[in-house]
Amino acid sequence: MKRALVLVRHGQSTWNLENRFTGWIDVPLSEHGKQEARDAGTLLCEAGYAFDVALTSCLERATHTLELLLEEMGCGAVPIIQDWRLNERHYGALQGLNKRETAEKHGAQQVLEWRRGFSVRPPELADDHPTHPRNDSLYSGVPNLPGAESLADTLIRVRAWWQEAMAPLLCANQCALVVAHGNSLRALAKLLEHLSEDEILEFNIPTGIPMVYRLNENFAVLNRQFLADDTKLKAAVDEVRNQASAKQGNHSI
After folding, report:
1. Catalytic residue check, 88
2. Residues 69-75: contacts with CB under 8 Å, at least 24 apart
3. Which of 2, 6, 52, 122 is a Cys-bridge partner for 174, taking CB atoms 3.0 to 4.6 Å apart?
4. Which domains are delineated in the chain?
5. What is the pLDDT averaged over residues 164-183?
6. Does residue 10 carry a catalytic annotation?
7. How confident is the model at residue 236, as a pLDDT?
């Protein structure tokens, strides 16, 4: 039996629009992001999807995307499970900074490594910093909260989430929707597709375009597709790649 897993990166946030590192800072959707969420719901409805369960992070831009998407589908009764392990990668002391200005200050190569390197952590927040998650009541009781994360760190928590929360639902043949973030979804894609560190460096997930996995009973990927035509998908992926203008080699930061 084929199992369907649909992933959606939240719609554009206000800080995406301002080209800032966001991480765990809780910012709202932009007006464009709200429309992206509704459009994703329309696409999924037109494609005939119905979900048994929806999973999302603890951050507003993801939860609001999910809310608007399900509203557009007329699926307000779908059970929703929130989990901090689906949060965006924690960008540490970079959070709130403009990506282009940070590249001008520290160099494009350094920011590329912070942003896209698999095992490279950005500068960490001090434990007493007001935006450190240990000072947020939302995460009370969660051990070992990060002050910064690499994608490798993000993969560790996403893998634990997959094993404890997602896989049992798929074993029960539930059709699941996951609305999360660029890096938590990239980590999940790496896990599902067994992508190398070089391959995940090049893997970009655009905002608001559903990505559908078909899995077999062992969770091996049978196929993956985006619900968008090639022109729209290319434009959306290029927008992710080119969030900052400074470049190093063939990679935008």
Report:
1. yes
2. 69/8, 69/37, 69/38, 69/40, 69/41, 69/44, 69/177, 69/179, 70/41, 71/38, 71/41, 72/37, 72/38, 72/40, 72/41, 72/42, 72/45, 73/41, 73/44, 73/45, 73/49, 74/45, 75/50, 75/51
3. 52
4. 3-229+239-246 (3.40.50.1240)
5. 95
6. yes
7. 79
